[in-house]
Amino acid sequence: MRFGLFGRGDAAKAETKAAAESLKGQVRALLGLSETVAIAVNEILCADPGCPGTETVILVMKPGAKTQAFKLQMAMAEVTAEALAEALAEALDMPAGR
Question: Among 9, 41, 44, 68, which is disulfide-ready with 60 (CB 3.0 to 4.6 Å)?
Fold first, then answer.
């Protein structure tokens, strides 16, 4: 099983880091989060037959609050603004057009 940036070349690591930073910014904007909120974005490859394969996991960690996890059944590079907004809306029980 491979997690995040392990086992990848420098160019791929840079590309993944840039995608993660972009997603963090989008999450922060969509949810109206301050800079005090930590956001982690990771790509996970699961070899278990019950897993979807590659998954993007986003953790939102607000000080003093329970961590929120958002999952997208796609690689980080495949995440569109629409897919991200939908994943966040579903998890937060908000209309997708917010």
Answer: 68
